[in-house]
Amino acid sequence: MRYRARWSAMPLVAALVAAPLCGQGSGGVSNPGSSPPAAAVVTNEMLRNAAASGDWLMYGHNYWNNRFSPLKTINTTNVRRLVARAVYTHGSTMLGSFETTPIVVNGTMYITSPATPNNIVRAFDLRTQKMLWEYTHKNGPVLTACCGPNNRGVAVSGGSVFVGTLDDELVALDAATGKEKWAVKAGDGPEAGYTETMAPLVIGDNVIIGTSGAEYGIRGYVKAFNAASGAPVWTWYTLPSPEEGGWWGPFSKTTPEGDDLKRDIAKERADSAKYADAWKTGGGSVWMTPAYDDVTKTLYVAIGNPSPDLDGSIRPGDNRWTESVVAIDATNGKFKWGYQEVPHDVWDLDAVSPPVIAMVGGKKAVVEAGKTGFVYVLDAATGKLIRRSQAFVPQQNMYSQPTADGVFMLPGANGGEEWSPIAVHPDLGYAYTVGLHQPMHYKVHYAPWEKGRLWLGSAFVRVPDDKGGYSGEYGNVNAIDLNTGKIAWTVKTELPMMGGATATAGGLVFAGEGNGWFKAYDAKTGAVLWKFNCGAGANAAPSVFELDGEDSWPWRRAGTSRSAIRSATPSSCSGCRSRNYTGLPSGVSLRDKKTQSLPGDPAGSRCVQVWAVRVRQKDAVAPGDPAKGPSPSQRASCGRLWRRAYGWQRAENQPAIAFRGGSYPIFCGILGPGAPGRWVCPWVRDHLGRRPWRPLLRASIRSAGAGSRSRRGGGLRDFPYQFGHTQA
Questions:
Q1: Where are the alpha helices (DSSP H) in 8-156?
Q2: Is 441:406 a contact under the CB 8 Å cutoff?
């Protein structure tokens, strides 16, 4: 699996709930003054009935993995009034793609950080907006993480939180305190290419987890560990040994649907003895969380690419069960059936997006969106193909064999559908995919396997436009009718899509984009009903939850009723970049942020510019008595915005002054009394000419190589905005 992610220095979760910024605590300990979650124990019955829950209890919301929430308070009529109400950071101070899906249990939210360099888990009380605890797993040296030091979330059950780590461990934490209960090695470690990035899945007494690492010549697996002790229960390897029937298969000339794979079958058969042990390092990662049918006790797993990725000459045969959807017995790990989307893949067209169980035409089916650009609908009992959808991305020269000089083919190595999870609306019978159009040349070369070293046997080369850029790349959001295989609607996006979709009973589909836009679509028509810009790439599938059945903040002045925001939709967003300036008054430095339109105001008429001002120790000013709020001088420092203030809140465990410009919160002062560091100050103006508010600071500043520029009435440069107090 190969993909390109947007990286950032200030990742965050933007939760669309009525809440102030959260506090941050110390690594590995509970936050002082916080209390344990009200209901930390998630039972097996809760997990079995998760499809009807207003919480978000597992990665795919429920065992069927369909990312469909039954909540419908937010709907096609009132979603335009949805506003951002809280921002949560994951704790890492280094660059990383933030891909966690927040898990929410009765008002407690669990998120994970990218492993840059450590795996961090945080728990937040959504009612008090305090961080309950933080756990930091200090990873050993990891030089074999493909594709990126990512983590996609946790599993919760029985008073425990389970997380996989980049150094190939499965860890159990106390859900109430964050203290480590046990940690076990899942595979042979990163030195052999094994890492953990997927969100685990709890079934009964067991924790299920797969492995990353097919780019390093591993032998993929799915494993079950006892949830109470961490003891291994069973292992199923994705590449069957010769004793298990082998991985060669029937040497298929075509895909199961009849597409010519252009293979030299005679040569492969002749080379079989020479490469008889290729299965031992043949890849087959399980990148993403499986689906589970509790009635038949069956796990449905999507399996990724063979190793090496493009050089099929040294791995003859179909390379089962790479690029496949496989059913295994969840009680003992025994194989039931497999459907191989691309036998003998030499294009990195993984089956990587998580499988979903759905009812199609009255029959239980397994749905998987492939990098091939097709959605596959399989009989859940037998694995036989029910139908393959229309292609939801352009296809050209499909299954052309790579050459040393390179061959052009669409889709490229990222798909199609990457690891991004799809959503399925059970009432409409639609599957929602997020696609990539990213033309590539496939080049192949021989490379021997070396333990712990990247082993592609190939190169994936993006195809630039005539100016050397990549303007020809784009993405899309699609609704696929599972009953016909036809595309019901499609919406083109500016950048290739990465992150996934979530659907609700309110008739909505939510998905984020690499340019920062987080959008709500009409599930029936694809119309964009609402959007919010996170400031940098929204690279994770969102979750939807309900908190106490109502909102606790009065937002009528913003034109949003309480009932319109009872449910919450957190999305992982990552940002931001910044630029230093000189020439400011002594003791003050300015970091420039983006002029950012923030939807939520029905008129869509306002923007916010957020400046981060760094103050020296001797120049620091106390933000006022926490019991009384900011002082008069501090109110004045925020200018006319004070007229729209709705009070002050707490952020990062320190007093802060909170204002509302238009219909969204802006945090104007962050640090504690007398503390130096960075203060965040906003400038709000009205695009339509009403209330022409001015910037808080007026100075002519000089950017390296940019010359002088006045701040009077001008817009800031195009950098993502950032909330909160962070490191420079």
A1: 44-48
A2: yes
Please name the residues in contact with 587: beta carbons below 8 A apart, sequence gap of 6 or more. 615, 616, 618, 619
Farthest-apart Cα atoms in the chain, separation: 85
- Count of Cβ atoms closer than 10 Å to residue 77 Cβ: 11
Structure tokens given for 445: 């070369």
CA 129 – CA 34 distance, rounded (Å)? 10
| Location of structure tokens 């669990």 | 110
Please state the three-class secondary structure of 211-257 as a single string. Answer: CECHHHCCECEEEEEECCCCCEEEEEECCCCHHHCCCCCCCCCECCC
Q: Structurally, what CATH architecture does the domain formed by 12-573 represent? A: 8 Propeller (2.140)
Cα separation, 541 vs 547, whole angstroms: 20
Which amino acid, 45?
A: E
User: What count of other Cβ atoms lies within 10 Å of the Cβ of residue 635?
Assistant: 19
Q: What is the mean pLDDT of each run of 10 residues along the chain (728 residues)?
A: 38 41 37 52 96 96 98 92 80 86 94 94 91 95 84 97 97 97 96 95 98 91 98 98 96 97 97 96 96 98 93 95 98 98 95 98 97 98 98 96 88 93 98 95 74 67 78 94 98 95 97 92 97 83 82 22 29 32 32 34 33 36 40 45 31 30 30 31 33 28 24 25 25
Q: Which residues, at least 6 apart from 632, have a Cβ–Cβ distance to it below 8 Å?
A: none
Alpha carbons 318 and 315: distance in angstroms, whole number: 9
Q: Provide the pLDDT for residue 81.
A: 85
Task: Please tell me the distance from the alpha carbon of residue 477 to that of residue 531, in angstroms, as a whole number.
Answer: 14
Side-chain half-sphere CA neighbours of 505 within 13 A: 12
Question: How many angstroms separate the Cα of 172 from the Cα of each of 164, 185, 228, 229, 301?
Answer: 9, 12, 9, 9, 23
Dihedral (C-alpha) 534, 538, 542, 548: value to the nearest 10 degrees? -20
Residues in the chain: 728
Domain positions in the chain are 12-573, 588-709
Separation of first and last alpha carbons in the chain? 33
* H or E stretch covering 163: strand 160-164
Place of tokens 């390093």: 216
Look up tokens 């997020």; give the residue: 434
Q: Is the entire prediction scored with pTM above 0.70?
A: yes
What DSSP string runs through 350-383? ---SPPEEEEETTEEEEEEE-TTS-EEEEETTT-
Q: Is it true that the peptide bond before 117 is cis, omega within 30 degrees of 0?
A: yes
Rounded distance, CA 384 to CA 398, Å?
Answer: 23
Mention every residue, 6+ apart, whose C-beta is less than 8 A from residue 707.
none
DSSP 280: G
Q: What is the number of other CB atoms lying within 10 angstroms of the CB of residue 103?
A: 26
Enumerate residues 6+ apart whose C-beta is below 8 A from 104: 55, 56, 57, 110, 126, 543, 545, 568, 570
- Tokens of residue 181, six digits: 């209960």
CB neighbours of 638 closer than 8 A, spacing ≥ 6?
630, 645, 657, 659, 668, 669, 681, 696
Cα separation values, 467 from 412, 442, 463, Å: 20, 21, 11
DSSP-derived 3-state class of residue 47: helix
Q: Which of 387, 374, 347 is nearest to 262 (CA)?
A: 347
Answer left, alpha or beta for residue 415, where phi above 0 means left and psi between -120 and 50 means alpha. Answer: left
What is the distance between the alpha carbons of residues 560 and 82, in angstroms, rounded to a whole number?
7
Residue with tokens 């033309």: 439
